[in-house]
Amino acid sequence: RKYYVEVYGCQMNVNDTEILMAVLNKAGYQRTMSLEDADVIFLMTCAIREKAEDRIWNRLSYLKSLKTKSRPDRAPMVGVLGCMAERLKEKLLESDKLVDVVCGPDGYRSLPRLLSLRALSADGVANVMLSADETYADITPVRLDENKISVHLSIMRGCNNMCSFCIVPFTRGTERSRNIDSVVEEVRRLSEQGIREVTLLGQNVNSYRDTSESDAADTIGDGSGLSRGFSTIYKRKEGGRRFAELLHRVAQVDPEMRIRFTSPHPKDFPDELLYVIRDNPNVCRNIHLPLQSGSTTCLQRMRRGYSREAFLDLVRHIREVIPDVTFSTDVIAGFCGETEAEHKDTVSMMELVGFDTAFMFAYSMREKTHAHRKFKDDVPQDVKGRRLEEI
């Protein structure tokens, strides 16, 4: 039994695919690089923007023709995995009947059973239940490219921030973290395998919080505070071992291994974390600091938990602690209700901060989000495009 997998979207989807491959390989499946040889075809999907979903629908139409015309005698199963699977289960299985198996980000352990059930049934099967504790910490990922010397390592899943534009909390659930010891041990194994760069991965990676027991001593301080001037719309949990300690311990495994992390939230940069970055030469001096908007009023509608001034203060403070730091960012053009003055605030913020890299997008309304319930996507597409170019 052979499977073929295509990956769309973020780096977390790449990591999820490597977990999926470990699960399938253990169940006796084999990966094939040829679509024509596959008994099962998986699409690891993204739901963050409408354009990402459109690509999947187009691909599914092609795969349907493959099943009905090109290979009617040996039609492959088609599975949709990841964020789009969770969001559009009914449409995928019932309305369009384009797929056989639908599995959300927390259900990959169940895939062998789902495939067996589908083989015995005329109807599609699904598992899109979100979990409060699934981290796949006990599964060693099978790397998509065994020759790469740089890997991404998932340390936590989900997000609690509930930014008004973002679908992630609804497709990937609430935050839960792997325990520190399991992460450090995996980094040690990767070092022994010759991996030279590890990127710690999470939807809100620097809000990491390990509540497990450990014999390791904490020598760097609590690290649980928020960046100065930042807040959350949810009640933060006390206790646990935080990202600063994890990053410190990971950096100590192999001084010759470069360490990165993504994607963080600006609210979770306490001084303890900045000191760890400063004091460990193998922790890369690039910090991803998602801005989203340079306007305080727009940031309030986005429910980001900070003002323009607080963001600038954070940038200045980080540069004081880590003089050789570089910044990358994310920016949204044309969010609901964005005025020309708010847009100009974003443009001026880009000039003030001087980001080295930026990922910039025109706003795309997502169902289930706070913005979908409360606001109107009222900035015309041509205006969004023009503002995106100016940013």
| Shape, principal axes of CA atoms | globular
Order of neighbouring strands in the sheet with most strands: 2-1-3-4-5-6
Kindly report the average pLDDT value. Answer: 92
Tell me how many strands there are.
16
**What fraction of residues sit in β-strands?**
15-25%
Portion of residues in helices? 25-40%
Major β-sheet annotation: 6 strands, parallel
| Low-pLDDT regions | none
Oligomer: single chain
Secondary-structure element pattern, one letter each: EHEEHEHHEHEEEHEHEEEHEHEHHEHEHH
Number of helices: 14
Class computed from helices, strands and strand pairing: alpha/beta
User: Whole-number radius of gyration?
Assistant: 22 Å
- Measured distance between first and last alpha carbons: 49 Å
